[in-house]
Design goal:
The chain has 343 residues and is an alpha/beta fold. It is 27% helix and 20% strand. A hairpin with a 2-residue loop joins strand 9 and strand 10. Bound molecules: aspartic acid.
């Protein structure tokens, strides 16, 4: 039985937020995250029980991989019944991938998993980390009618809360580092935290964690002048179980015969290909232009308005299951955790 007092678990995986100056103006070094209250005494003012679970060796998020996602998901599952909500402190560089991956791995979750981080370390005077962390904790603790307001994986950064599998990192410097180009913010953060209840996920599926991810996937971005040699070396490097192609606009590729033949070769080898757009906003429509219709005919799956981050992590999860191609395609096409807009 959980205590009456709200309990929040902060998981610190690494990233800029947990750094401080080794000496005034000196290089940044990670601080011992168990001592977070020394850096952020405001935490004591919450009427919450806050526990900290830092990684023993915090990582730059450029080093994140499926094993790290699994470790985070396992921590959440292990403590699922003990806490009202979870805050994951993570580097910003791959936060959108981690948020997407966790949204699929923890499909059907009924509690908040709020990712946040910072562009400037907590140990710097102008840090954005303090506000981000404090707001993330408030959001993770927010309840309505004895149930969490947020029941999904989300990213809290700057002035917004976004669905985790809808965000991309768009700025290497600004405090509004993330955007959710194809879905509204879930909450706007100002004087008050304004939740948009009608936009929040209300999972109808039971909580069914799935922690495995396939790494036999590729990602190729089409660009004007991409050569057959380069394309072929990629195709021949397979067989791949899955491939994301980042195409132009609503899903178009050049009308080059060799490109279609190479893609067909992959499909014949059993590769599941998903088409996502290089545009940040809008969705794939493989019927709109002649240049996309060949993909549709081949059986390439249109990735709708998924971000690349969501598409690749979903593909990794789908391909880790021992299923027929038909089922894999079906799974890629169903909306698992609000990752694409329903037409
Ligand atoms: N390189 C850092 C990371 O992603 C940047 C950050 O923390 O924002 O871990």
């Amino acid at each position: 039985m959980m205590d009456k007092q709200q309990k929040i678990l902060i998981i610190y995986s690494g990233g800029t937020i947990g750094m401080t100056e080794s000496s005034p103006g000196g290089p940044l070094v990670p601080f011992d995250f168990f001592n977070i209250v020394d850096h952020l005494p405001e935490l004591k003012r919450f009427d919450l029980k806050i526990d900290i679970a830092p990684f023993q060796n915090p990582i730059d998020s450029s080093d994140v991989d499926p094993l790290v996602w699994k470790k985070i998901a396992e921590l959440i599952i292990e403590h699922y019944d003990d806490y009202h909500g979870f805050v994951l402190l993570h580097g910003t560089d791959t936060m959108a991938y981690t948020a997407s991956a966790l949204s699929f791995m923890l499909r059907g979750i009924q509690k908040p998993v709020i990712l946040t981080g910072a562009q400037l370390p907590i140990g710097k005077i102008r840090t954005d980390g303090k506000e981000n962390l404090i707001t993330a904790i408030e959001i993770a603790a927010a309840q309505e009618n004895n149930a969490p307001v947020v029941r999904e994986v989300a990213v809290c950064f700057g002035a917004h809360l976004y669905r985790g599998n809808r965000v991309s990192k768009v700025s290497a410097e600004g405090f509004e580092a993330f955007k959710s180009p194809n879905y509204y913010s879930l909450a706007d953060i100002g004087l008050h935290i304004h939740f948009k209840n009608q936009l929040l996920l209300r999972p109808t599926q039971p909580f069914t964690p799935h922690l495995e991810m396939s790494d036999n996937v590729g990602l190729i971005k089409i660009f004007p002048g991409i050569s057959q040699k380069v394309f072929q070396s990629f195709v021949n490097g397979g067989p791949w179980d899955g491939l994301i192609i980042e195409t132009y606009g609503s899903g178009n590729i050049p009308q080059k015969k060799w490109m279609q033949e190479e893609l067909q070769k992959l499909i014949d080898q059993g590769t599941l290909i998903v088409n996502v757009s290089q545009c940040t906003q809008g969705h794939i429509d493989q019927h709109l232009y002649h240049n996309a219709q060949a993909l549709e005919k081949m059986g390439v799956i249109g990735g709708k308005d998924m971000t690349t981050e969501a598409a690749i992590t979903k593909l990794m999860l789908v391909l880790s299951q021992n299923q027929s191609m038909e089922d894999r395609k079906k799974n890629m096409s169903i909306c698992m955790a609000g990752e694409f807009s329903q037409e």
